[in-house]
Each structure stands twice: as structure tokens, then as C-alpha cells.
Amino acid sequence: MATPAEEPVPEARKLPSGRVARTARIGGLAAGQGARWAGMRAANRMRTPERALAAEQARTAATLHELVDRLSQMRGAAMKVGQMLSLADFDGLPDEQRDELQRKFATLRDDVPPVSFASIERLLRRELGGPLKTFFSEFDERAFAAASIGQVHRATTVDGAEVVVKVQYPGVAEAVETDLRNAMLLVPLIKRLAPGLDARALGAEMRERISEELDYELEAQNQRQIERLLRGHPFMRVPLVHSELSRRRVLVTDYVVGDRFEAVRTATEPARDRYAEIVFRFFFGLLYRERIALGDPHPGNYLSCPDGGVCFLDFGLVRQVSRERVSSEAAIALAVRGNDPQALKQALVTAGYLPPERAAALDASFALRLMRRATSWYAVPGKRRFATADPADGGPAGGPAQTGAGRTGEGRTPEHRDGAREQVNQLTLPPEAVLIRRMHGVVAAVLQTLGAGADWGAIAAEYLHGEPAASDLGRLEAGFIAGRRAR
Which one of 15, 64, 118, 267 has the fewest CB atoms closer than 10 angstroms to its CB? Predict the structure, then answer.
């Protein structure tokens, strides 16, 4: 990882703990917003359609801002719930409000102050079974990264290896069950904001994924698996895990020298393009070749290495996906590529995005327009460069449940907007696809931030449809894969 800053990162305020305190945070939000929505709808009976629409948009935005603010104070599973909710396309918001809220949801990943070292040291002693000096000759008390469930410190082992130590926040694991149970209090609120979303199914998926992410031994297993798959890769790196020092709440891995994302943003265009293509290939290759969905492709989780490669970090939010899921996602991309509305509609049913009982109500041509705006950046071959101000082909929308009427051009009048909303609400988000949609959306946002250019559709087709390598990096990777299979 890059060298940490000289100044310590400001520490967090005291976090709310205990079942009653955490439940009060969520329960109060759900009850208060429920009353406000009821009041708004009563008032809308006396308003013109235009004023009623404006009032509903204002209430949606206010609700989401309060939701992010409340969850950001709680860490743990509560903050993870907010990160997962960023997948949904909240109904009825114009583009500028939707984009503003997505940026606010991003603060649940980015703006997380660390907790005091005293509490972290106590946890380390318990997990490791002795004082730090028994295991480390040096240990930097200043955290140089912090996230929703843990923070990261530099250290040197007694054997002289430079490592990073990821430590779970004290009390986070104990609060998870409460947080996940409380998340179900938000179901009525989420149904108001995103009517097409199966909030209970999403909640069940969140429960399973977040519970797994709290187990650093499972994360170590994920990291070892992916490191073995990519060992010797010409431009991808994964740090080695120090299994002898890792525990359920402590993960120790090799320290890697590299530049963070902000440094890459100021690099030359060819350097940014190369970096972006490697990021794209890493996440799409693991998903569509290895059937491993990585749900946290946040740019803080990879480093630009001095040799031109990219090192990838953080393997807590991972899902093994089925062959059927990979095939159905490929079928959706192929239907979009072929501009075939009926094939797309059938692929959406097969993939679980369109419940069979709702299929007759969905206009296939509308679905194709919707999906082209969401997926054509990677589904359709053709050289394209992401604009840093405006996403390519309608933006980094992650999929059917993440693309609403405001992005279709069909919501210009209340009547058109209601019709488009009814169509969008026929679609849902199957639990197995949650991390896939999250990966697609965040990778697109990263490419947009870099202003990256490539034939993304041709590169994706290597993984989605088994087509030949589309670039020099693709040919290097094809050689690596062939060599791996020959071993």
C-alpha cells in the first residue's frame, strides 16, 4: 500500500453501541419518515400534478439524505446496509438529485474515521493471544485506512516481513445481528422509495453477505484463492496472506508499494487507460471466467504498482455465483448487443430480473431502451471513452433495478413519468445478482472518473462470450490463462 500520511487520521467520535441505542436510531428514522410520507401524500391530494411531483421528489431526497446521515454514524452492518441500498434506483428523482444522492451514499465507503488505537490494541491482544511485541517488531499506531467494519495499520513482523494489519472494530461483530434485524424495519420505507425492489430478498442477501464479511478468516480464504488464480499474472497482483497471524477479526497480508487512485487520476491518458483496462479485466474476468463476484470494487481497494501492474485488495464481500447466473448475464448482454427486445425480455425472465407473472406487463421495446442505457457500455462492442462529466451511454447504471424513468427520457410529463415508473417497477433485483450489479456500477464509475477509453464491449466479450483477445493486455492475459491450464 502507499505510504501512510505523516499526520494521523482524525479519530471517530464515540459510536452508538448496544441493542437499544442502535435500534432507536433505525426505528426512529423509519417511524418519523413514515409519518412524513403520510403527511406529504395527504397534502398532495390538494396539489396540482406538477406540485405533487415536486413534493414527492423533495420527500424522497430528504428521506435518503437522513438515511445516509443516520447510518453513517453507526458503522458495522448498519453502514453496510446503506452501501447495499446505493444499488437501488430510487423512484421519481431527476438525474441531478439521483447523482447527488449516489455521491452521498459513497461517503458510507469513503469518509470513515478510525477508532482509537487503545481499543484496537486490546482487541489485537485478545485475538493474537499475547502482546503485540510477541508478533511484531514494529507496529504503527496510526491507522492509514478505515472502513465500515475495520481499519488498517502498517507493521513489521518479528521475522522482518513488512505487512498491513486489518483489524475489526471492537463491538462491531456483536452489533451485527441487531443491525440486520433493524434493517427489516426499513422495508416499508424502501418500498416507498423503490417500489420494484424486493426489499425482503435484498435484506436476506445482505444478512448472508455481511455476516460472511465479518469473518476475516473467510476473507483470508477468499484472498488466498484469488492470489493462487492470479499468481504469475503479467499485470495483476494480490498480496499474500500471513495465515499464521490472521484470526477471525485480524487479517495480516503483505505490504505492497503502489500509488493510490488519486495519483492515477493525474497520470497521462495512456497510463489511465492501461490502469482502467486492468481494473475492468480483473473484475469482469473473475466474475465471468472464474464465477467469483467481488462486491467492493471501490478504487481505494487497488494500487498502481511501479511495474505498470495493479494490486488488488479487500476480499471480504465475495460471492461464488452459479454457472446459470453467468450464462443468464451473458444472455442479457448478447440481447442488448443484438438489439433484440424479445430475446432480452426472455433473458430478463430467465435471470430473475423479471418475475414471470409480471412479464406480460413489461413492454419489450421499453426494456431494451432501459437496458441499453444501463449496459451498452460493456455489452456492445465499439471504441468509447468515458466522459469525466457525463457517463458514457447514459452512465454507470448497474442494471435493471438500478435504472429508473428519470434516465430513460420518458419521464418528461407526469403521465409519461407514471407510465415509465409502472414499467420499471415490473423489474426487480434477484439476490444472487446484488454483487454483480454493484460491481458493474462501481467499475463504470471508476472508468468514468478516469475518463478512460477502450473497446469495453470487445474486452467484455472475451469473458462473456469467449471471443478472441481485443487488446495487447488481452493477448498477454490469454497467454497466462493458457499456461495456467497447461500446468
Answer: 118
pLDDT tens for each residue of 204-247: 777 777 778 889 999 999 999 999 999 999 999 999 999 999 99
For 265-291, the pLDDT digits (tens) are: 999 999 999 999 999 999 999 999 999
For residues 49 and 179, membership in a common domain is answered with: yes
Q: Where are the alpha helices (DSSP H) in 338-386?
A: 341-351, 364-379
* Domain boundaries, position 49: 19-109+175-198
Of 148, 183, 198, which residue is a domain's last? 198
Cell of 31: 417511524
71 contacts 87 by C-beta, under 8 angstroms: no
How distant is the alpha carbon of residue 450 from its chain centre?
A: 18
pLDDT exceeds cutoff 50 at 366? yes
**How high is the pLDDT of residue 349?**
97
- Is 79 a member of any domain? yes
Please answer whether residues 352 and 372 qualify as being in contact, where contact means their C-beta atoms are separated by less than 8 angstroms: no
Q: Where are the alpha helices (DSSP H) in 111-215?
A: 117-128, 172-183, 187-193, 199-213
Contacts with 196 (C-beta within 8 Å, 6 or more apart), sequence order: 91, 401, 424, 425, 426, 427, 428
User: Which cell numbers hold the place of 400?
Assistant: 435493471
Q: What CA–CA distances, in Å, run from 484 to 232, 233, 487?
A: 9, 10, 5
Whether 330 and 474 share a structural domain:
yes
- Is 283 among the domain residues? no
Looking at the domain assignment, is residue 78 inside a domain?
yes
Confidence at 460, pLDDT banded by 50, 70, 90: very high
Q: What is the pLDDT of residue 406?
A: 35
For the whole model, what pTM was predicted? 0.78
Same structural domain, 188 and 331: no
| Total domain count, the chain | 2
123 lies in some domain: no
Out of 164, 198, 232, pick the residue that ends a domain: 198
Instruction: Count Cβ atoms below 10 Å from residue 288 Cβ, excluding itself.
Output: 24
Q: Are 246 and 219 in contact (CB under 8 A)?
A: no
Give the pLDDT confidence of 58-83 residue by residue, as tens digits: 877 777 777 766 665 555 555 556 55
Helix (H, G, I), strand (E, B) or coil at 259: strand
Q: Residue 16 region, left (φ>0) first, then alpha (ψ -120 to 50), else beta? A: beta
